[in-house]
Amino acid sequence: MKNLFSGIFICISCFACSKSNDENIALTRADASRLDKAIKANVNSAQDSFVISTFHGVPGTVTPYYQQILENTKLANFTHFETTFTSATGNLEALRIAEELGLKVIVQDYTRFGGFQNYPAQIANTTPTSVAEAVAMYGAYRSFAGYFVWDEPFLQQLPQVKQDLDLLKQADPQKLFHIVTLQSYSPTYTWQNAQYPAYINALLSTVQPPMLSTNYYVFDQDIDNGVALTDSKLWKDWGFIRKRAYEGGIPFWLYTQLMGDIPGSAPGNMTVPKVAVQNYSALALGAKGISYYNTINGIFDDQGTPNSLYQGVKELNKEISVIGNKLLNTLPVLVYPTMGLLHGDYLHVMSQSQLVNYAPPGLLIAEFRRVEDTTTYLLVVNLDYAQPHSGSIQLDAAINLFLIDKEDGDEQAVASNTSVVNYDLPPGRGELYLLK
């Protein structure tokens, strides 16, 4: 494959000449080479557009409401859904309906492959024969996008995860292969006991997944328990996942919380801005897809009847999809908050930017470089999900500024030869700017 970065490699490597002398952050030639691999991996994978999915997209057994649930999933601008904890009969019915609607399906079937955590009853006795059965059953549907190989394996399961992944890849190599890691607030592998990074590293080295995916439900875990977003370990988890995915040359997805009351399986006190701040933060870190936990009891009930969040999430999904596709094949150069994060260990700081000289507190800023030229994208996110945020960002040099239209992705001219980006962000929302 042609090297997509041959024309911009020098411009990328110049970020090593950062305002900061922190050699752990500066983007070196080695970093650029890894990012080259990451974009190529994404280009060559089964994913050709930004993914918006949902965990457990249909009830576990077939009900008369599958049709309405999936119709409203499609209308809410989802591209995919996952059939976790769903019977084989339910998988087939979901695939049939999805085919009519133009949705893609990531199938879990731990009677034939993969598993969930370390529960023996939910771990398959995977064999070439059982994999062949899965390929024959599900491969007849154009809506079949991939395999949910394993949800949150423990270290002891990693050899079998690798075995199952290899069998599936050999039998059906063009599909997505989804493996979701545990998060650092699971009791076994934490930052406090130093086992979380060891766990992620072991998963990557043992399993060698083609994509990395993790979850962190920040409102349930932290904010509803009095921990501010800026003090959450979400940033440490997601920052580490970002780092290791790029170092390994693979794309990554992030799960975000949609169902506000997870223990009660109810919308709870969730709001659209709370959803938005998670999704825009995922975009800023460079995720190539997001998946919600969950649409059922999140934006509609188990019969598919929409609730008060439905319309707002539908509109949010549209803009996330537009921005996500704009950034799909870009180089993620820097991502930094404009104020202190308690656990921002694996993010950058603004002083390392060669682009931004000053930005007000309260933002998350990400810099991306388009693969085909030296054009830069600037994603600006309001981390306050309760209040709007307006202000001005001062750039190091004058540029031509464009705003990406969230409806259709068009580049709208804002100003010529300017060194100021004026923004006005709703709670939890972001804007994507193009700088030429």
Structure write-up:
This protein has 436 residues and is α/β, with parallel strands linked by helices. It starts with 8 loop residues before the first helix and ends with a strand. Helix 2 crosses helix 9 and helix 10 packs parallel to helix 11. The chain is built from eleven helices and 16 strands. Strands 10, 11, 12, 13, 14, 15 and 16 form a seven-stranded antiparallel sheet that branches. Strands 2, 3, 4, 5 and 6 form a five-stranded parallel sheet that branches. The radius of gyration is 21 Å and the shape is globular. The N terminus is likely disordered.
Task: Offer a quick outline of the entry.
With 436 residues, the chain is of the alpha/beta class. The protein is 30% helix and 24% strand. The chain has eleven helices and 16 strands.
Rg, rounded, reads: 21 Å
Low-confidence stretches: 1-29
End-to-end Cα distance, whole Å, is: 27 Å
The overall pLDDT average reads: 91
Shape: globular
**Percentage of residues assigned to helices:** 25-40%
